[in-house]
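FIELD: query
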Amino acid sequence: MKVCELSEAVSSIPSGAHVALSGFAITRCAMAFAREAIRQGLRGLTVSQCVGAMDADLLVGAGVADRLIYGGGSLDRFGRLACINRRIEDGTLKVEEHSSLSMVFRYLAGSLGLPFIPIRSLRGSDVLKRLAETAPGDHAEVVDPFTGERCLVLRPLVPDVAVVQVQVADAEGNAWIYGPRWDNGEQVRSAERAIVITERLVPTEVIRRHPEQTVIPGFRVSHVVQLPFGAHPTSVYRAYDYDAEEIRRYAEAAKTPAGLRAYLDAHVYGVRDHWEYLARIGGAERLNRLAADPILGY
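FIELD: result
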């Protein structure tokens, strides 16, 4: 049985694992997952993400993640990823900063089972210069057997687990993603397995009526967690908008280690689980104000 509580899904991840996250800045982030991982005391994670987002910043700030592979990122209009930047500056976070395209290429290589994948866009860039210092083993040059030209190639990314926030899934993990999918399909196919966190759990018959909408196939999924507002305070298209007040609260707190500790005490360690977190931030009254417009999707 794949359907389980969030605590069980998180407990299946050992410390030191490589976890790929599906979020983008303040959109469809695995926030409930991040809070539970912190509560369970995971350590030494490698986190990869095409565009760094709020969930990764929280994991890095709480000391759960010690290595980050990403394509830059931010809290969108609410500012920078303060925890990530602070740990880069003080030298306590191992970071490999790619372009977004090269992150997608690395997941794509992993999803196809390729030993490496060629890329042109990094040549001559400061991104490549920096990667030569921080991750020299993740790129190389090979000779094109057809033209004799020297090609830059990237090592594939193969996470231990992909954690993907979705709108709809069935009990087997077959999942739909409305709106932008980014690199999520490639992430799931490159990972050893996936954890799906869904806003809605529907019968498999519903999924079968629209097979073209299935982005994540169930055979890649080990755990399915039904968790309404699992991405709060970030947004989920066609479900709810981002919570600007709560993101501002986090962005301000994350500016200093003391502020972050106070935020974690109130919103992570100070609550038993996701449901108590939702009650703490205002419960149904506040969440209803975030519900998506049925026409606009936000």
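FIELD: remark
The longest helix spans residues 100-112.
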